[in-house]
Amino acid sequence: MKKSSGRCDLHIHSHYSDGTLPPADLVGMARDMGLEACSITDHDNTEGQREALLEGSRLGIEVIAGIEFSVRVNEQDIHILGYLFDLDDEKMSEQVSMLGQARRERARQIVERLPGMGLEIPLEEVLELSGKGTVGRPHIAKVLVTRGLVGSFQAAFGRYIGEGRPCYVPKTVLPLDRVVELIRNAGGVAVWAHPGGRVRDRNLLGEILDSGVKGLEAYHPNHDPETERTIVDAARSYDLVVTGGSDYHFYEAKQIDVGGVTAPFSAVLDLRAALI
Question: pTM for this one?
Answer without folding.
Answer: 0.89
